[in-house]
Design brief:
Strand order of the largest sheet: 3-4-5-6-8-7
InterPro entries: Endo/exonu/phosph_ase_sf (IPR036691)
Organism: Elysia marginata
Protein name: Endonuclease domain of the non-LTR retrotransposon LINE-1
CATH topology of the domain at 9-127: Deoxyribonuclease I, Chain A
Distance between the termini: 30 Å
Order of helices and strands: EEEEEHEEEEE
CATH class of the domain at 9-127: Alpha Beta
Keywords: Endonuclease, Hydrolase, Nuclease
Number of strands: 10
GO molecular function: endonuclease activity
């Protein structure tokens, strides 16, 4: 995101959305850029029903995990966990994968019926071998001609949207319809 504690939420507000941020910290060992954020549509899920469950900022992985209970969700799903990740280009991929899969496996163990999504900038890294019960949906370029941003989960479709303001990445919309 390139956001830091000197940039207030009001500078990145989108009407009718709440922004949840995990800015890069000194723990990352990286100085430029970094950090992740998620925008949650207030008409879909209120602030009272959205909780930050984990933040990770290491040299190999930056992650923000949210737990959401939207207005309309089938009863068989207690909640939705959204994990927004950034794997720096020079990260140790094995350590990043281990950290990420441990977090996702923990979420699945604590709430096996929850919907879990893992999305973000993977910088040419994939999780197909590690999250075998998840599907990767993005099949279009998300930065120039490259597909760096991925989305793993159990939804049916994902489609490319326009870039968000000054970002050099496209937004992705996922839905449970074919």
């Amino acid at each position: 995101t390139w956001l830091n504690n000197n940039i207030p939420d009001s500078d990145v507000d989108i009407e009718n959305y709440t922004v949840y941020r995990s800015d890069r910290t000194k723990n990352s060992g990286n100085s430029n850029g970094g950090g992740v954020c998620a925008y949650v549509n207030n008409k879909w899920c209120t602030v009272n029903n959205t909780h930050i469950i984990q933040r990770v900022c290491t040299p190999d992985l930056e992650l923000l995990s949210l737990s959401l209970r939207p207005y309309y969700i089938p009863r068989e799903f207690p909640k939705i966990n959204i994990n927004v990740v950034y794997i720096p280009p020079d990260a140790n991929r094995e350590r990043a994968t281990l950290q990420m899969t441990n977090i996702i496996n923990d979420q699945q163990e604590k709430s096996p019926d929850s919907v879990i999504l893992v999305t973000g900038d993977f910088n040419h890294h994939t999780l197909e071998k590690d999250l075998t019960n998840f599907h990767q949906y993005i099949d279009c370029p998300t930065r120039g001609i490259n597909t760096l941003d991925l989305c793993y989960g159990k939804a049916y479709t994902c489609k490319q949207l326009a870039k968000l303001r000054e970002s050099d990445h496209n937004m992705i919309h996922s839905a449970n319809s074919k």
